[in-house]
Here is the input.
Amino acid sequence: MVGGGGRDSLLRRRVGDWDVATSALPETVASLFAGSRYENRFGTVTVPRAVPPQRVEITTFRRDHQYADHRRPDSVTFTDSLDEDLARRDFTVNAIAWGRQATDASPRWSDPTDGLADLDARLIRAVGDPAKRFDEDALRLLRAARFSAQLGFAIEPATLEAMSGTAGTISYVSKERIGMELRKMVMADPPSGAFRILADTGVLAGALPELDAQRDVPQDKVTGDDLWGHCLRTVDAAADLGGDDKLRLAALLHDIGKPPTFADGHFIGHDSEGAKLAEALLTRLAYPRRMIEDVALLIANHMFSYEHRWSGAAVRRFIRRVGREHVQPLLQLRRADNVGSGLPANAGHVDELESRINAELKQNAPLTLRELAVDGNDLVAELGIAPSPQVGDLLERLLGEVIADPSRNTREALLAQAREWSAT
Ligand code: ATP
Ligand code: MG
Here is the structure.
C-alpha cells in the first residue's frame, strides 16, 4: 500500500482512496480481479469495489524515463524493486509503503526517502532533486501547494525554492487538471495556505491569472491587507462556516472583478464584472455548468445592502431576484465577506435578514411566474389578446403586484387587474 492511504492513516485522517503497488505485471493483476480495467500505459489497473472506496488503483513498480512535455514520462519501465518505484514518486510523505516484500516474514513500512520523519516534522519535501522533479512534471507544483493546505504541512525550504524556480512550467498543465486541483484546494481547511504558496512562488500567475491580479490592489478593509489578503481571509471564513465547494469558490472569486474596474479608489460594477470573469474562468477549467452558474450568481449578487426598514415586500423581492435556493448561500457569502473584511459575521444585520427571509419562505408566498393564480393561456382566453410579448409583460407586472401583496393572488383579482391594464 502506497501513497495517500498510508500517509493519511498515519496522520489519522480519513483515507479517500487506496493505492497499491506491486511487482506483478498489469496483465497479471488484471487477470486476478474481476471487472478490473487496464487502460493506461503507466501500468495502473483500476479495480472496482462495491464498498468504499469505490475503486483501488494497483500500479506496477516502475521507473519513469524523460518528461519531454513537463507532464508525463515518455516511457516507463516496470521493475521488481519497490525502492525504485518509491523514488519516482513526488513527495517523501507520498513515498512510504506498507507491506510484505518477498524476503519479509511480516508486513512493515518501507521508507527509503525518510518520509516518516517528514510526516513527523509536518513537511512536504520533494523526493530527490526538487528542481528536477518539478521540471519533470509541473502538476507537482499544484500538488505541493494542495497537500500543504490539506495536511497543514509547511513546504521544506529547498522544495519551496525549486517551486519558484520552475513556476513557469505550469503552462504545461491542462486547464482541467488545474481545475481538479483547485477544487481540492478550496476544500482544505483552511484553504488559504495553498493559494498563498502558489502566489508567492509565482505559480498562481500562470495557473489562475485572475486571482493573481488581486495582489497589491489597495483595499482599506483590514490594516495591512491588500485585496488579495481580503480574498484569502474570505475563503478561509467560508470554510470556517462549513461552506461547500460552491460557496468556497464564490468566496475565493467574489472580488475578481475589482482589479479591472479599479478607478479613483472605487470598483464600480465589480460584482457583475466579477461574475463574468468567474464564469469565464470556471468554464476554462471545465467545471460543471450548474456549478459555474451558481458561483456566478452568488458573485453577481454579493453587493446587496439590507436595511431594517425593508418592507415584507422588499424582502420578498430580494428572494425573488436571487432565487429561493440561492439566498442561504448568498447570506453565507456575505458573512464570509464580512469576516474577510475584519468585521463581525453579522455586520449589516445578516442574521435579521435571514430570519425575515425564513419567515417569508414559511408563508410560502408566490415568488415566481409559475406560482401566479393565472398563466399566459388564461390571459389570452379571458382578455382576448393575441399570444405576444405583451402577455409576458402582463404576467411580470402581475407578479410584481402579488409580491407586494400576496393576498391578491386569486384568479379573479388578477384577471380584473390585467383587464384594467390592457384597456388603458
Ligand atoms: P489523495 O488521493 O489524497 O489526493 P495521494 O497521495 O493518494 O493523495 P494520488 O493522486 O492518489 O495522491 O496518487 C497516489 C500516489 O501516486 C501519490 O501518493 C504519489 O506517490 C504518486 N503520484 C501521484 N501523482 C504523482 C505525480 N504527478 N508525480 C509523482 N508521483 C505521483
Ligand atoms: Mg490517492
User: Anything to note?
Assistant: The first helix runs from residue 4 to 10. Residues 220 and 355 are 31 Å apart (CA to CA).
